[in-house]
UniProtKB/TrEMBL annotation:
The keyword Amino-acid biosynthesis applies. The keyword Isomerase applies. The gene is dapF. Belongs to the diaminopimelate epimerase family. Its main location: cytoplasm. This is Diaminopimelate epimerase. It comes from Pseudofrankia asymbiotica. It is found in: Cytoplasm. PANTHER family: DIAMINOPIMELATE EPIMERASE, DIAMINOPIMELATE EPIMERASE, CHLOROPLASTIC.
Amino acid sequence: MRFVKGHGTGNDFVIVPDPDGDLDLTPELVRALCDRRTGVGADGVLRMVLAAAEPRAAEPLARPGAARWFMDYRNADGSLAEMCGNGLRVFGRYLVDAGYERPGLIPVLTRAGVRGADVPAEGEVTVEMGPPSVGSPDAVAVTVAGRAFRATQVSMGNPHAVCFADGLSPADLAALDLTRPPDVPSDVFPDGVNVEIVIGAPDAVAMRVYERGVGETLSCGTGACAVAVASATRAGRGPGVAVPVAVPGGLLTVLWDDDQVRLRGPAVLVSDGLLRPDWLAAARRGSEPALAAGSF
Ligand SMILES: N[C@@H](CCC[C@H](N)C(=O)O)C(=O)O
């Protein structure tokens, strides 16, 4: 089984080309692939499959026929997510660099609907992230690293809680301990949520993120879009803004237009590899990582 490793501002992925949809990508296999000690290591998996080979993914979505490819995104814990902004840039870069598509605007089916990836022959990739849905500013109580914040609820196809940490310096933001999951109200976020902590606004922001199904990551594309939109809304601005968003892994640009949000940033392919059959068989059985409790 072939794989490619890639990243977008340090949010890293194992890309699994599976055009005909032959692969049974179980949660156990996803967890084994993403394991940073006993697998390839990543924040998530991007399975690349022809949309026609995956009719069930398209069922609830409008215009599935518009997209040739389905981006089957999985979080490192094996869970499904509706969308992944950094992943879509990397997915688009792979489609072009591997010769599946020509440079240009490529429609891709995701669980949030069809999204476009504008991939030049080289350089940064811009993805169409769809329209945002923003709740009332600062309406939700959230606790992160033992500190109480007010969060704005934003959907970019997947759920976000954006916390403006007005009193925090850049050093304070960097020092927050994000090793434990934030405490969020489960009635507001029944399916879990990605939590962003933000300083600086509304023209330029810096953020850290604790991702649902992963933990802290160096970047989150849907999160950067949620932050830019929440930040503009909080400042009484509407669409028509361009916001640079600094994440621990680099810099993203979010453009909020009348119809939708666009996300621009790097998309880097790092390596190609082959999974060994014996490792794959063990991963499928769920017996990776090899150092399971009680084995020594
Ligand atoms: N890192 C991603 C978001 C991945 C999905 C997220 N963890 C979720 O469960 O919603 C991005 O770049 O958008």
